[in-house]
Design a protein that fits this description.
Mean pLDDT: 95
Radius of gyration: 23 Å
Strand order of the largest sheet: 6-11-10-9-8-7
Order of helices and strands: HHEEHEEEHEHEHHEHEHEEE
Number of helices: 9
Shape: elongated
Structural class: alpha/beta
Largest sheet: 6 strands, parallel
Strand content: 15-25%
Helix content: 25-40%
Low-confidence stretches: none
């Protein structure tokens, strides 16, 4: 996973800071009446985790309070497992210091980001761990990836959370990779080969082309046309196993016309059915279940009194 090779926050370019500014402006577009009440007295607040999970979203939380001239001291590192239990129902995760009105102005924005980001990282880590446990010793598990089914305006945070949880975030946008889905194929006359050739001509050698396929025959056509990745869409575990075996025999090492390609499976994947696909010989398993409709990790921020 990426976190084993460096600090994930170093992936972020400065543009995310403008997003944080917009989120703060959304929450306080004019007067801050509560801030008027409490004033600028220097205060200390404790960030408390109240449900277990994986801590994620630290750079965004930090930026909220940096813009409000507050300081954040973390007691846990990003990616840490927050082991809240009945015996220990609250854990102090960080301490925020600064003017009282600034702490309270940033409170809800920062907590919303952290709760959502940590929820995705928690669900992602669970699926990654399951997939690893299903893989025979000495073998590498398939790559678990997210999807582009993210919240508009919040994609960066959600993709970041997937990385913290140990998954591949998949393509970030339409410019990151050419993915030819069924609608693309139908819109250009139903020819996968024609669509792949057009995509290759436009994107050049630096952009991969992936084709969504409904059958082994479609995957064969896509590979023969030069697709870098074929996605087997909504295949059952058994169907995927048969199709992957056929494609490897036809195009893998030792075949008459070997090709370099990856096989991805997507469509309806959850932790419940991951075991059906883990041993199918697939390269990538992509699912929105690790980031869409997941729960959150409950945090609160309490001023010390």
């Amino acid at each position: 996973m990426a976190s084993g090779h460096g600090i994930l926050a170093h992936l972020l370019n400065p543009n995310y800071k403008a997003e944080v500014t917009r989120w703060l402006a959304e929450d306080c577009p004019s007067f801050d009446y509560g801030g008027f009440v409490v004033g600028d007295a220097s205060k200390e607040a404790k960030l408390l985790a109240k449900t277990p999970g994986v801590l994620a979203g630290v750079p965004f939380f930090n930026e909220v309070f940096r813009q409000l001239d507050c300081k954040v001291d973390w007691h846990y590192t990003e990616g840490a497992s927050l082991k809240v239990t009945p015996e220990m129902p609250k854990i102090t995760v960080a301490t925020v210091t600064g003017p009282a009105r600034a702490i309270l102005m940033g409170e809800r924005v920062a907590l919303n980001i952290l709760a959502r980001c940590s929820g995705i990282a928690t669900q992602t880590a669970s699926a990654v761990s399951l997939l690893s446990s299903l893989t025979p010793a000495g073998s590498n598990p398939p790559t678990l990836a997210g999807t582009r089914k993210t919240t508009p305006g919040f994609r960066l945070v959600e993709k970041y959370a997937m990385l913290v949880g140990g998954a591949d975030p998949h393509r970030h946008d339409l410019s990151a990779m050419t993915m030819l889905k069924d609608n693309h194929i139908w819109a250009c006359g139903g020819s996968i080969s024609k669509a792949v050739r057009a995509a290759k001509a436009a994107s050049g050698f630096t952009v991969k082309v992936e084709v969504e396929c409904q059958s082994e025959d479609e995957a064969t056509e896509a590979i023969e046309a030069g697709a870098d990745v074929v996605m087997l869409d909504n295949f059952t575990g058994k169907q995927a196993e048969v199709a992957i075996k056929g494609l490897r025999e036809r195009f893998g090492e030792g075949a008459a016309g070997p090709r370099s390609f990856l096989i991805e499976i997507s469509g309806g994947l959850t932790e419940a059915n991951l075991p059906d696909y883990a041993a199918a010989g697939v390269d990538v398993l992509s699912t929105s279940s690790i980031h869409q409709g997941v729960g959150y990790v409950d945090f609160s921020l309490k001023i010390v009194h």
